[in-house]
UniProtKB/TrEMBL annotation:
Cofactors: Mg(2+); Mn(2+)
Keyword Protein biosynthesis part of the UniProt annotation: no
Annotated organism of origin: Neospora caninum (strain Liverpool)
Name of this protein: Inosine triphosphate pyrophosphatase
Comment on bound cofactor: Binds 1 divalent metal cation per subunit; can use either Mg(2+) or Mn(2+).
Organism placement in taxonomy: Eukaryota, Sar, Alveolata, Apicomplexa, Conoidasida
């Protein structure tokens, strides 16, 4: 595991009272974006590379919670230290086409693997409506509040959504999934064409992280009462 890029346990002073978040992802691009968005250093972010299941037939919120439950179990069975203020977080990202009633949605990873960013827009070739939205769903588990072995942590689901259109041909860098085909409303650039700082101030992930910050602020406020 790595905390803000530093490998190993105990990288943070033990009296640090900031929330400790184990972010379960093996995607370095996601980790970098989350680190930039949460750049106010109000949290301690630890990358936890666990083997998350690929689920089908459920809503984004249900998928995120199921993944989070799996991550919690794996961390509890590992040598990871889960102190009192520890949180475990997973993210599930969807790209939804309105003409297709939300597809590919949570299955966009498989569609992208088979079709690539060049092929995804072809799903809308027969439709005039090219609108869609990017959805980031977080599930956060309060593992530090578990008092007895076998007890379940509290799970919280948070979302961020950015509406836009699906462009007919990819534009911009090809290093981050479907970014080259999604153009957010109010902009003439796709995610992939944007400066990272701009994208990270308007994206679905940014909005989900803003919801996370609000959740953490409420949590800290409650603890101080």
């Amino acid at each position: 595991m790595a905390e803000n890029g530093d490998v190993g346990h105990g990288a943070t002073a033990p009296d640090d009272s900031r929330p400790l978040i184990f972010f379960c992802t093996g995607n370095s691009n996601k980790l970098a974006e989350v680190q930039q968005i949460l750049g106010d250093r109000s949290v301690r972010l630890v990358a936890a590379n666990v083997d998350l299941p690929e689920l089908q037939g459920a809503s984004p919120a249900e998928i995120a919670e199921a993944k989070c439950r799996s991550a919690v179990r794996q961390l509890q069975l590992s040598d990871a230290e889960l102190p009192q203020n520890a949180l475990v977080m997973v993210e599930d990202t969807c790209l939804c086409f309105n003409a297709l009633k939300g597809l590919p949605g949570p299955y966009v990873k498989w569609f992208l693997h088979k079709l690539g960013p060049e092929g995804l827009p072809s799903l809308l070739a027969a439709y005039e409506d090219k609108s869609g939205y990017a959805l980031c769903t977080l599930c956060v588990a309060e593992v530090g509040r578990v008092k007895h072995e076998g007890d379940e942590p509290h799970f919280h689901t948070l979302e961020g959504r950015t509406d836009g259109i699906i462009v007919t041909e990819p534009r911009g860098k090809r290093d981050f999934g479907w970014d080259p085909i999604f153009q957010p409303d109010g902009f003439k650039l796709t995610y992939a064409e944007m400066d990272k700082a701009v994208k990270n101030s308007i994206s679905h992930r940014y909005k989900a992280m803003e919801a996370l910050k609000e959740f953490l602020a409420r949590k800290v406020s409650t603890m101080r009462r």
